[in-house]
Design a protein that fits this description.
This protein is mainly alpha-helical and 84 residues long. The protein has one domain. Helix content is 94%, strand content 0%. The protein has two helices and no strands. It is rod-shaped.
Amino acid sequence: MIKFFRKIRQNLLMENKTGRYLKYAFGEIILVVVGILIALQLNAWKEENTENKIVKQFISSLVEDLKSDTTSIRQIQKFRQWKG
């Protein structure tokens, strides 16, 4: 594929069609920029998903800790009522 595009560029330069070559070069630059932007967007999406997973795990852990703390507080209250 790269050889194909290289051949097109060489033919355009040899035939002194600089206008067409510049259009071709500009099109190639646009394709590269679009590819980079897509890669950046995919990377941001992946990072966001990773962060969301971490937040969900943190919230789940927090809920479990709250349940455990609530159980402990109730046991302490029952013990104090029984003792006191």
